[in-house]
Structures are given as structure tokens and as C-alpha cells.
TrEMBL record:
Biological or metabolic pathway of the protein: Pyrimidine metabolism; UMP biosynthesis via de novo pathway; UMP from orotate: step 2/2
Protein source organism: Jiella endophytica
A single cellular component GO annotation: cytosol
InterPro entries (alphabetical): Aldolase_TIM, OMPdecase, OMPdecase_bac, OMPdeCOase_dom, RibuloseP-bd_barrel
Active site (record annotation): 64, 66, 69
Gene name as annotated: pyrF
UniProt name for this protein: Orotidine 5'-phosphate decarboxylase
Gene Ontology MF terms in the entry: orotidine-5'-phosphate decarboxylase activity
Keyword list, A-Z: Decarboxylase, Lyase, Pyrimidine biosynthesis
Amino acid sequence: MGIEDARDRLIVGLDVTGRAEAEAIVVSLGETVSWYKIGFQLALSGGLPLVGELARAGKHVFLDMKLLDISNTVEKGVESALELGASMLTIHAYPHAMRAAVKAAAGSPLTLLGVTVLTSLDDGDLAESGYAKSVAELVAERVAQARDIGMGGVVASPAEAAAIRRAIGPEMAIVTPGIRPEGSASGDQKRVATPADALGAGASHLVVGRPIVGASDPKVAAEAILAEMAKA
């Protein structure tokens, strides 16, 4: 894999509070990065207009809103994401929500991603939440539903990427958070992997937040991760 290919597969998580901080990171990264993730933290602190601004500047935006509501509300939310200019949008992988999202996005270039099990959760967390299944079992069930409903891909940890790729084939996206370069701390993530390991397992896109946005020089940190990805 070359650097350009790696650049198309690295998503930098703008997990910051406030538009000014996010804009400063985007400026510092320049042409090094072509994909950004905007989630709740930034969206709820004035950053939602950045979706359209980044899209107009030639960037791709992964809008990580994890939609889950009644079907009509999910449909309207997907329509709004399309108007903003998002390239990817997350939906919690409940069948009714995924069906509503697929209906709303039909004919558009928006890639819908089913969130299987958050990378900060493990089997104990699922048991505490009332699930009788293990992480692996629940991920497998939700991945199969996402595939059959017509979603564009799924969000899952690198630990499940290989099994998911076998289940869904080569076309659907597998977006993996919980990416930590060699030597980085795991933080609050419980199912993590290096960039090379995640790509080797079948991930199509890697989401990297704190190791880049929390670095003293985000551009240098991003370039190091791209180089690590290019060797995969």
C-alpha cells in the first residue's frame, strides 16, 4: 500500500470541544489528511457546520452520530446528514434503524455504517447491560443483519475485523476505531490494535483520534501513522 492509498483510509477523529480547536487541527494537518470524523463532542459544541465546510474543501467527513430512534426520526436524520454533505454516517445496528436509514439514503453516495459493539465495551459490560451474548456473538449477529439490510459497512473493533471480512466479503466497509500506534496507551478503549494489524485483519478505514489530535505536532503524528499503514 502506498501513502496515497493510506491517506484515503485514515480518518482523523476531531474529538475536541469547539470549532476553533478543530479548525486549528485541520489547518495543521493540511493536505496530509483527507478524511475527518465529527462526533458528538464536536457537533454539540458548534462544530456541525464543519461537515459542509470540509466537504466543500475537498475533504470527506465521517459523521459519527450513532443514530437510534423510531424509524421516521432516523430517516429524517439521514436526510439531514445528506444535506450537510457527509460521506459516512453511523447508525446503531438495530434492524429497524438500519432499514430506515437505507431507505432514506437510497440512490445517494452516503455510506451508512452499522455500529456493532462499541470498542470501549467487553463481555462484562454486555452482561451488565443485560445481553446474554458475548461481544463476538453480538457483533456477528449485527454484521449479518447489516449485510442483509443493505448497509454500506459496519463499525467494529480490529479484534473482530477478520471474522467480519469473511462474513461480508470484500465490498462493504469495515471502519475500525481503537487504533493505537506502536507504543501508544490504550486509554479507555478495551479492544485495540496497531494500524498495520487492523489493515491486515481486513479493515477498510482506520479512525485515529487522540494519538493525532492530542500530539504536540498532529501533522508529524499523522505522517507516522500513514507510514505505518503503508507498510501493511
